């Protein structure tokens, strides 16, 4: 079924999420390399006087940062033979020499099989000084045996961010802007905090006791805030049009080979199960969408604030759903159920 025919169903799902108080508002898109449809539902907040959500509203995309920033830049380095998946951290980050992280490989970080600590605990473990935190993370013990289990952890993206900065000799936000955002025309995307701009809507997230208000334009993730708002874990703000540009470029790499940012081989490897018989299955940072099988070829990444994006090279289709469900609750059960409905509708499953 052509994408245009799904617009009514996708719109209804987004509006249902608003009416059922799963999130105050949402923006979404589904498309191919050449064509897409997009929409928005609800408002920035539940207040009747709040501004209506727009397709180009900026969202704290949370862990989608791992894909847009770290995964993209890792692929950029691999393509230029400046990084290999079997490279060990001992050879990339001198601060790991003699410590448990030394033999960990880039591949193990990308597949969440490194045995890293699962919980952040950055401030409790290492204080609030940036250099102390970095030193502590690079010297900390493992919690599992590398290669034996798939366990999602923010540490993987955090450490890869350190690797990228060292190899490129640039802060992460500068490297991202130069090598990914600018080439793809993603002018609205960047690390916060966001300076107020006339007419630019930003979806608020969780209520912050310290601020006395819902966070808006300031990253929600505490680890990212502790690190100055810029890291591999979280921190990016983006919108539907920019994420469409990103996902279209990924799809285009499969049609045209190496693009300016994405290489077909990197995208193909990332959207292939790399973890053998281990569960849950993982590609390189991407994972098969919940409720799908290998024959469906739908890959996903989600963000804690209520964001998600999917890609299916076999179908030549992408989907994005950005919500600010965290405005209401940290519980993800209801938004995950709606995400599943949205994904099935978007990809005709």
UniProtKB/TrEMBL annotation:
Keyword Hydrolase: yes
Stored SUPFAM superfamilies: beta-lactamase/transpeptidase-like (SSF56601)
Protein name listed in UniProt: Beta-lactamase family protein
Residue span(s) of domain Beta-lactamase-related: 11-338
Superkingdom per UniProt: Bacteria
Keyword Hydrolase: yes
Matches recorded under Pfam families: Beta-lactamase
Keywords: Hydrolase
Organism encoding this protein: Janthinobacterium kumbetense
């Amino acid at each position: 079924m052509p994408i245009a025919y799904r617009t009514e169903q996708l719109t209804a799902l987004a509006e249902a999420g608003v009416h059922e108080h799963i999130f105050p508002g949402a923006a979404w898109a589904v498309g191919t390399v050449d064509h897409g449809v997009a929409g928005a539902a609800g408002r920035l907040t539940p207040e009747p006087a709040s501004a209506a959500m727009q397709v180009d509203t900026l969202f704290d995309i949370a862990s989608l940062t791992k894909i847009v920033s770290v995964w993209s830049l890792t692929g950029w380095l691999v393509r230029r033979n400046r990084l290999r998946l079997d490279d060990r951290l001992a050879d990339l980050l001198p601060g790991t020499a003699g410590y448990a992280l030394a033999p960990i490989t880039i591949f193990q970080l990308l597949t969440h099989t490194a045995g890293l600590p699962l919980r952040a605990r950055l401030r409790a473990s290492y204080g609030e000084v940036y250099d102390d935190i970095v030193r502590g993370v690079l010297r900390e013990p493992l919690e599992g045996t590398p290669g034996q289990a798939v366990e999602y952890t923010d540490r993987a993206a955090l450490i890869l961010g350190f690797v990228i900065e060292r190899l490129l000799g640039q802060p992460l936000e500068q490297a991202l802007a130069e090598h990914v955002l600018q080439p793809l025309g993603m002018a609205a995307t960047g690390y916060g905090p966001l300076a107020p701009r006339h007419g630019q809507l930003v979806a608020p997230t969780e209520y912050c006791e310290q601020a006395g208000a819902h966070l808006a334009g300031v990253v929600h993730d505490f680890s990212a805030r502790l690190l100055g708002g810029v890291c591999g874990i979280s921190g990016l703000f983006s919108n539907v049009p920019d994420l469409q540009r990103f996902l279209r470029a990924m799809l285009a790499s499969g049609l045209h080979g190496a693009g300016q940012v994405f290489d077909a081989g990197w995208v193909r490897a990332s959207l292939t199960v790399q973890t053998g018989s281990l569960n849950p299955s993982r590609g390189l940072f991407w994972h098969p969408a919940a409720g799908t099988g290998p024959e469906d070829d739908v890959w996903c990444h989600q963000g804690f604030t209520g964001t998600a994006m999917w890609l299916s090279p076999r179908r030549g289709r992408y989907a994005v759903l950005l919500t600010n469900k965290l405005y209401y609750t940290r519980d993800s059960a209801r938004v995950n159920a709606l995400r599943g409905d949205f994904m099935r509708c978007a990809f005709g499953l």
